[in-house]
Amino acid sequence: MIIFTTNLGDITIELDSERAPVTARNFRKYCEDGFFEGTIFHRVIKGFMIQGGGLTAKMREKPTRAPIANEANKGLKNLTGTIAMARTDAPHSATAQFFINVADNNFLDHIATTNAGWGYAVFGKVTAGMDVVKQIEGVKTDTIAGHEDVPVEPIIIEKVTIQD
């Protein structure tokens, strides 16, 4: 389990290493390296998701490792409370950024091995702290440093704890 301590409270995440081994291992490595500490939830869209894991409070992108293979075809669904990898339009471009679904987002699920059909790889779920996720979902957002849907008051991941 991974515990993100944010300035709004704790979010506990259980990784699905069995069905999304590459993605779970990648995420855990970023956690072990302390990469997420000091990053923010930089994209918050009510009724959709909260995204974080790549930008500092000053809206600077942190350097990442190489992209990983997209495991969206492993059968995990983008349901409320699941955590998935963010990526560019290229299916196999995910590095460190992730999002937590605040609704059932089946349109993000894998439907085909085409660019448009790959979907977004779910690799775990929130097991505690959905109240914190919902609190983050409800914050005021604006366009900041060229990014849309950014919380006006930074939501910072202050500490990451790994519990085995």
Automatic annotation (TrEMBL):
It comes from the Bacteria. It is found in: Cytoplasm. Its main location: cytoplasm. Gene3D superfamilies: Cyclophilin-like. It is an enzyme of class 5 (isomerase). GO terms for cellular component: cytoplasm. Keywords: Cytoplasm, Isomerase, Rotamase. Residues 1-162 form the PPIase cyclophilin-type domain. One of its GO terms (molecular function) is peptidyl-prolyl cis-trans isomerase activity. Its EC number is 5.2.1.8. Belongs to the cyclophilin-type PPIase family. PPIases accelerate the folding of proteins. It catalyzes the cis-trans isomerization of proline imidic peptide bonds in oligopeptides. This is Peptidyl-prolyl cis-trans isomerase.
